Amino acid sequence: VSSPTGWWPTSRSQLPCDDAHPSRAPGPAQPGAAHDSGAAAPTIAIVGSGPSGCFAAQSLRKRWPHAEITVFDALPVPYGLIRYGIAPDHQGNKAVSRQFDRLFERQGVRFVGGIEVGTQISYEVLADAYDIVVLATGMEADRPLDIPQSPAARVVGAGAIMRGLNGDPTVARELLGPVGERVAVIGTGNVSLDVVRMLVAPIGQFTGSDVDDDALTGLRRIPVRHVEVVGRSPVARAKFDLAGLREICRLPGVVIRPVGLTSADTGDFADLLRAAEQEPPETATAEVRFRFDSIPARIDVADGKAVMQIDRDGSVRDTVVADTVISAIGFVHRVDRPDQSAILNQPNVFVAGWRRRGAVGGVAANRKCAQEVAATIIAAVEAGPPRPPRPGTRSVQHLFGSGVVDFGGWQQIDAHEVQNARAGRCRSKAVNLRTLHALGRREALSCSV
Ligand SMILES: Cc1cc2nc3c(=O)[nH]c(=O)nc-3n(C[C@H](O)[C@H](O)[C@H](O)COP(=O)(O)OP(=O)(O)OC[C@H]3O[C@@H](n4cnc5c(N)ncnc54)[C@H](O)[C@@H]3O)c2cc1C
Asked: Does residue 376 line the site of ligand 1, with CB under 6 A?
């Protein structure tokens, strides 16, 4: 299993974290000494157990060793896109979850999984019950492909495919049928490379991964022979990480063909693609073509296949024919998720991670962002007037319902998945919500107070 370092471009991971409360600029990361009294520490609810929620919990725990910190997640399992986004063959990138385990195992942070805030507990109730609320709910939907397209064309989001390959129980299994021999992938970022690799890498490359085999074999039931990666920007401005592109270029049996590069196209990406084209494999199983400066304009259907028109400088340049078009053009907030707007302007509510900055940057960017948000919170609490403490979890736990999974419950799920891993897999995930809940059920919940 490969795990390229620096998967996400440094320039993106260093994006500044704009302040959701402009009047309160982030302070230094660790002001003063840690409070040592539970009485002085605030009650804190964090919504979302992805990297930004967990990094925020880490920083706040460091400052307030005795604070009551509760991390809620809609799913009965923690860690957001670490579990359900990062490619299953990039286990090294998923390993950050081990440092988050310590929060829940040893540092007294509580995990309350299987509760969608805004549905089972309203955001308003949460903001009343806790001194501090951090919204770290991510960006969950594929950005829609906003071009005219025939409803008969098969167009699927890359995020949905990656979630499916990661065993996300919320992905409709119908999405994971064969993509066909010819696939067009729109977008030249890292998620697009992840999808391409999952579709054309020899199956043996997934040894040691936790890929969902049913999803993988379903998507690849008809072997993928031809992938066309289409991006708007010139090659030099593609958003790939070089390590990720190199990984594609080194896949056994895969022919790489950059289309339309000219002598004006320079830089690492162009060099890498040209070099890969010069060294084709002896036996080819699939071809991946890269087109840059190419704007998908519309998708029609002919003979049961998607026919994508590609424009350059406003004129028709070419068409790409595909069984499936996969759009990897970013992520937006899922519109069917509960509305947070009622509490966004409350002084005790803060926003972190992708929910705050948009879907830009990897895990490292969220660490920086969450640390900055935590510093803002710490500064606000310490500068604020003395306040009557809010009760925290004990005042809302009657709303939890019976479907709650605590960290011990997650550990039961985790152990089951690892013990029941199929041959060649490091785990085989339970892909059904009911099964996850059943595996995570416990006699006495540690999230009760
Ligand atoms: C396909 C893909 C591959 C990626 N690969 C890499 C990689 O290799 N390396 C890397 O560094 N980065 C990678 N990233 C980026 C990385 O996953 C994100 O930067 C990061 O997960 C964003 O963190 P977050 O905590 O803001 O959001 P998320 O990870 O999305 O976490 C949000 C959490 O909030 C929960 N939630 C949402 N709404 C509610 C609610 N109402 N109530 C309760 N809980 C709720 C969700 O269930 C989820 O657990 C990848 C992203 C994608 C999509």
From this structure: no
